[in-house]
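Key idea: predict the complex, not the pieces.
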Amino acid sequence: MLETKNINFYYGNFHALKNISMKIENNTVVAFIGPSGCGKSTFLRLFNRMNDLIPDTRLTGECIINEEDIYQKSIDVTNLRKKVGMVFQKPNPFPKTIFENVAYSLRVDGVKDSRFITQRVEESLKDAALWDEVKDKLKKSAFELSGGQQQRLCIARALAISPSVILMDEPASALDPISTSKIEELIHILKKDYTIVIVTHNMQQAARVSDKTGFFMLGELVEYSDTKKIFMNPEKEETQNYVTGRFG
Amino acid sequence: MKKIPLNVKQNIAFGTFRLLSLLVVAILFWILGFIIYQGAGVINWKFLTTSPSDGMTSGGIFPAIVGTLCLIVGSSIVAFPVGIFSAVYTSEYAGNGNIVKFIRIMTNNLAGIPSIVFGLFGMSLFVNTMGFGDSIIAGSLTLGLLTLPLVIRTTEEALKAIPDSFRSGSLALGASKLQTISRIILPMAFPNIITGLILSIGRISGETAPILFTVAAYFLPHLPHSIYDQVMALPYHLYVISVSGTDLEATRPLAYGTALVLILIVLIINISASFLRKKLQKRHA
Ligand SMILES: Nc1ncnc2c1ncn2[C@@H]1O[C@H](COP(=O)(O)OP(=O)(O)OP(=O)(O)O)[C@@H](O)[C@H]1O
Ligand SMILES: [Mg+2]
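Result:
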């Protein structure tokens, strides 16, 4: 389970996240929606500590994954990121072969057993619904794939190390409709085994893929509840305005 | 007054630019053509494989070729690792704090020091204080220092050209910073780093002033036995037979021949390095 308690986050003096508390159950899909610049990506990056890479930032509050505060001193960030995978907005495969892209996380983890690696690569590509398209060209460069295939490769790459959580920051916004619906189907399937947090600007997408939805505005979590409720009958007027397109 | 139409202005501007760039190419070909015309005549197997003789008015330049190759290898061994690693440190690890700014300013200053000053410094430190004497090692260290800023700067630029999305992609998979740099960033930057190294090799092989007091021998008809020996070197030899021979007119063709060999060495290194670069780029694209 993922949980944040009174999270505040600052870029320099800019207060980007304001007192956010939220719980995310295991094996659910949670979508973050909200106008551009409201802090969705910033909040998402808290869970794998990618914000650590940005200089001059500050965090207060607690961020707990499986009963452990991931911002404790004793936490090994590389281990955390093996448990909490991430898929970025723009597909970013490495300039390596398809096989080596998926094997990468295992190799940096120190896995030497090549039978195991081969098996994990195959399983991950199957889980990412890419296996049939690439099984004959695993030795080819990942750059030879289409944008949508590259994004599914990035998902496979994140799955290979067997994380329990997958963070997706607008994973389909750079893709065509067919690739987008493939990614959405994939999210449905992956939900069985993973907890998925996805940021999206596409309201229909949020409604289609997620169990729960959080609506952010100006650094605040305005409303967070079942996706159906957010879209059919939200508590707050801002949410109502946003999901019906009267704002943002 | 009637205004000149925009497209005419544009044509005049770009026409001028084109003319200027053609001029640069023309000058380059002129120099090359001139050297080839003057020097090609003396180049033959004997010229390349024998020592100078008869007070350097005849014979070949073999020891100077070997000397220059030794200095290229030696100063590369000095400058490449130090330069590449310090560039990795400043651009990948150190952030943008005051230390990095200081290192960068110092590197730029290092690049601005005239090469003869490096020669003096090298003589004082490596030849005298460290006691290497006039030797390949003293010359290589001096040339290595000289070319260090160039290696650092081009490596930094090559690293900066790699988009951050590759870094975050790797880190997000649980790779450490060192793994990210060694497995993703450096291999990707390598083709461009090589370009910097080629430039620096070109510079090393042509420098006269830094080797003057640290390694170069006026006349030394045998080959070095160790890194503590002196060597002849092509640029210095060129200087010697151009200004201090007994019969300058007679040795003029030898000078051009020497210049041509120097150019050819740089050219061969450039070509083989760009082959390597292409191969690496293919592997990583
Ligand atoms: N590296 C940074 N340095 C300073 N401010 C930043 C940085 N990244 C984001 N911000 C600011 O923090 C706020 C939240 O940004 P964030 O990227 O989290 O928004 P977002 O909801 O993901 O927006 P979008 O939908 O456009 O992706 C914005 O106002 C942004 O300007
Ligand atoms: Mg965002």
